[in-house]
Design brief:
By secondary structure, the chain is mainly alpha-helical. The protein has one domain. The chain has 9 helices and 5 strands. A 3-stranded mixed β-sheet has the order 1-2-5, sandwiched between helices. The radius of gyration is 19 Å and the shape is globular.
Length: 248
C-alpha cells in the first residue's frame, strides 16, 4: 500500500548557504549584530535569534514590529540590502514525496537524508571547482533525527555517492562529522539560511508550476536577489542542476 501524503506534507526542501569563514566572521556576523542592536536589542545579556516564523508572527522581541509600519519597512529594506551585499552561494534541493512514491512505491532513502546527499554532492563539486575545503553545519532537529543524520553524513563521507566518490568528500570536507547546533547558539549562518529558505522554497515551487507566485512583495524581492546573484551555477551560468534540483 502506498503512503498517503497531505498537500502540506508533499514537498520537502533543504536550503544551504555557502560562505567563506573570513567573510562570515568579519562581515556577516558583525552586520547581523548591528541590525539586532539597531532594531530590537534591549538587554545585552539576552541574545536575539533571527527566526523567520518569530519575525512574521511578531513573537518575542519582534512584537515591536507589529503596528509600526515605518519600523517594519526600515527593517525589511535593511535586510534586503544585506542579502544583496553579503557574499554567499545558495543551493536548494526539493523532493516531491508524492511523485516519488508514485514512481518507486517505497522509500529507498528517508526523504531528508536523500535531499541531504544530493545537496552535499553539489556542495562538494562547488568546493572542488573552487579548490576549497569546507565543513557542514545544520540546525538541530532532535536527538533521534540528529543521530540518524550524523550517521548518514559519516556514511557519505566514507562511501561517497553514485555521482561523487568518497575521495572527493574526503578531499574537500574538513571532518567526517557534521556540526549540529541548536537555534539558541546564535549562529549567524544558520539564521541567514532560515531567513532565506521560505521565500526560496515557494519561488522554486512556483517555477515548477506547483504553486502560485508568492503574494508577499518582500518574499518576491528575496527570491529575486537569490535568482539574480546567489544560486550556485555552472560555468555557463546554468542554475538548475547546480543551485536548484527537484527530486525525484
Amino acid at each position: 500500500m502506498k503512503e498517503s501524503l497531505e498537500e502540506n506534507e508533499r514537498f520537502l526542501t533543504l536550503f544551504g548557504v555557502i560562505t567563506n569563514g573570513h567573510h562570515m566572521l568579519n562581515v556577516i556576523q558583525p552586520d547581523v549584530q548591528k541590525i539586532k542592536q539597531q532594531f530590537f536589542q534591549k538587554d545585552p545579556d539576552e541574545p536575539i535569534i533571527f527566526h523567520r516564523k518569530d519575525i512574521v508572527r511578531y513573537r518575542g522581541v519582534f512584537s515591536s514590529l507589529y503596528g509600526d509600519k515605518e519600523k517594519r519597512g526600515k527593517f525589511a529594506d535593511t535586510m534586503l540590502a544585506m542579502y544583496q551585499k553579503w557574499e554567499y552561494t545558495t543551493i536548494i534541493i526539493t523532493i516531491d514525496k508524492r511523485k516519488h512514491l508514485q514512481d518507486y512505491s517505497v522509500w529507498r532513502y528517508e526523504p531528508y537524508h536523500y535531499c541531504l546527499a544530493v545537496l552535499l554532492e553539489r556542495y562538494i563539486l562547488y568546493l572542488q571547482s573552487h579548490q576549497l575545503r569546507g565543513d557542514v553545519m545544520i540546525e538541530a532537529r532532535g536527538s533521534k533525527p540528529d543521530r540518524k543524520l550524523s550517521e548518514s553524513f559519516t556514511q557519505l563521507f566514507e562511501n561517497g555517492t553514485n555521482f561523487v566518490p568518497a575521495s572527493a568528500f574526503q578531499a574537500h570536507l574538513t571532518s567526517r562529522k557534521i556540526k549540529i547546533r541548536r537555534k539558541s547558539t546564535n549562529v549567524a549562518g544558520l539564521q541567514l539560511a532560515d531567513l532565506l529558505a521560505h521565500a526560496a522554497h515557494y519561488d522554486w515551487l512556483a517555477q515548477q508550476n506547483y504553486v502560485e507566485k508568492q503574494n508577499s512583495e518582500y518574499a518576491r524581492q528575496v527570491a529575486k536577489i537569490l535568482n539574480q546573484d546567489k544560486y550556485n551555477r555552472s560555468p555557463a551560468g546554468k542554475i538548475v542542476g547546480y543551485g536548484k534540483k527537484m527530486l525525484p
